[in-house]
Amino acid sequence: MRYFIEFAYNGSSFFGYQIQPNQISVQEELEKALSTILREPIKTTGAGRTDTGVHAKKMFAHFETEQKLDKNLVYKLNSFLSENISIKQIFEVAADMHARFSATFRTYEYYISTEKDPFTINSSWQTWRQKPLDIEAMNQACKILFEYDDFTSFAKLHTDNKTNICKIYKAEWEQIEDQLKFTISADRFLRNMVRAIVGTMVEVGTGKLQPKDLRKIIEDKYRNSAGVSAPAQGLFLVDVGY
């Protein structure tokens, strides 16, 4: 039987979601907990992979077992796992449901703190040393994203992506007290794509770039044409749709 597991995590102490040699990952911790409690080797497939330091408010993975799951499994997993990972629910799905390939959209949020705030050091990009960002110009640049589907300029170099084509459904900035929040939804995202877009948008906000410059950046299909990647700690995966 195939099961979906919904969970959240603070990525500050993890080297990303995906298992990698000699580093602590969310996937490794999750599989270790499931395997220990179910007393059989459990392998999971995640809805995606987040980079080192990136957080997730809503993430999904699937796994398979022939066991009938204990109704208290969520509680047992939360008791076993560190405080940095929270299991929300586990439910049975059809055998052909896939945490990654069945997803129809993903939504990320990115947070920028415009005032010095010791409580958001690990959850936002602190830009208080810079001049104020022009959110109107940044939202003008957002509208240009909808004109394109090839985002090679925002993709991490030398990855195994077979295509850099993505369909962006939503992209907007909003001011919430002393923070700026960027929300972006798409059918898929490339490695480092959101952080590269945010870094470029901040250059628009500071006046280094004009909103219209985004067209040339995208059409160049060259990573060095875009801005630097925004710091990881401000990025949250907040939704995955099926």
From TrEMBL:
PANTHER family (alphabetical): PSEUDOURIDYLATE SYNTHASE (PTHR11142), TRNA PSEUDOURIDINE SYNTHASE-LIKE 1 (PTHR11142:SF0)
GO MF entries: tRNA pseudouridine(38-40) synthase activity
Keywords, ordered alphabetically: Isomerase, tRNA processing
InterPro entries: PsdUridine_synth_cat_dom_sf, PsdUridine_synth_TruA, PsdUridine_synth_TruA_a/b_dom, PsdUridine_synth_TruA_C, TruA/RsuA/RluB/E/F_N
Quaternary state and interactors: Homodimer.
Enzyme Commission code(s) on record: 5.4.99.12
Active site (record annotation): D51 (nucleophile)
Listed Gene3D superfamilies: Pseudouridine synthase I, catalytic domain, C-terminal subdomain (3.30.70.660), Pseudouridine synthase I, catalytic domain, N-terminal subdomain (3.30.70.580)
A Pfam family recorded for this sequence: PseudoU_synth_1
Binding site for substrate: Y108
Gene that this sequence comes from: truA
Start and end residues of each Pseudouridine synthase I TruA alpha/beta domain: 8-101, 149-242
HAMAP family for this protein: TruA
Function, as annotated: Formation of pseudouridine at positions 38, 39 and 40 in the anticodon stem and loop of transfer RNAs.
Species classification: Bacteria, Pseudomonadati, Bacteroidota, Flavobacteriia, Flavobacteriales
Reaction catalysis annotation: uridine(38/39/40) in tRNA = pseudouridine(38/39/40) in tRNA
Protein name: tRNA pseudouridine synthase A
Family according to the record: Belongs to the tRNA pseudouridine synthase TruA family.
